[in-house]
Amino acid sequence: MSTPRHQRKHEEPQSRCSAFASENTGPRMARIPDRKERHMTKTYEQKTCGMCGMEIPGMARKCPYCHVFQNRFSRATGHPLFGISIGLVAFVAITSVYGGLMQRMFDRGEDFQRYADQISVHDVRIEFGQLEGEPTVVVLGRLKNRSDIGWEDVKLLGEFYDADGDLVDVSHRGCLMYHVPAGGEVAFKISRGREFPESRYATARVKVLSAKDTRARW
After folding, report:
1. CB–CB of 94/102 below 8 Å?
2. Taking the domains of the chain in order of start, what are their residue ranges?
3. d(Cα 99, Cα 89) in Å, to the nearest integer?
4. How far apart, in whole angstroms, are the C-alpha atoms of residue 87 and residue 93?
């Protein structure tokens, strides 16, 4: 026997609701916690401070015990080794700068004896004269510097020989020159009182005893 039409209209919505309910009777999906719940969870979580090793809240940005911020940079700069490293770097830098300054301040320059063969004497001649009524003998000549270093306070020694080549007299004073430029020439003069007749002073020889590097501080 068939169901009347007016009864079928009332049964259709009920059957549809039953079908929908039957489709959603399966396992329910897990609910995703909201932002507030996630914050509360992290607040109650614990983590270890990377500096002092104490247990601190998971959301803590700064350790309440050692007061170090909980990020890599802060942990690195707050570590004792970091301070020691900075101190060592500063010490090396200061020592290098100070050492360089001290070296320049007390630099004695190049040793002249290493360059003595590059300072030569040329055009040496003897002249005679009078100084305040006293006879004098004078040696004139030129110094040639073949080195790449300028020299000052050049001390010369003059030796006088007779016609037989025997040593007659010596000028112990020497001669102090202000500056002999690198690769340059300069004239010099050695004068002293004459003790013997002019005829005894046949020739003269000049030796460079010492000199100071113009770059030297002392």
Report:
1. no
2. 72-105, 112-213
3. 15
4. 10
Specify the pLDDT at position 158: 92
Q: Which two tokens stand for residue 130?
A: 């009078």
Q: Look at the chain and count its residues.
A: 218
Are the C-beta atoms of 157 and 170 separated by less than 8 Å?
A: yes
CA atoms lying within 13 Å on the CB side of residue 159: 9
Q: Is 100 exposed, middle or buried (0-12, 13-18, 19+ CB in 10 A)?
A: exposed
Which of residues 192 and 19 earns the better pLDDT score? Answer: 192
Q: What is the pLDDT of residues 15-56, one digit of tens each?
A: 454 544 445 555 555 555 556 555 555 556 788 887 787 888
CATH class of the 112-213 domain in this structure: mainly beta
Distance between terminal CA atoms of the chain?
Answer: 134
Given a contact cutoff of 8 angstroms between Cβ atoms, the answer to whether 183 and 146 are in contact is yes
Say which amino acid occupies 182: A
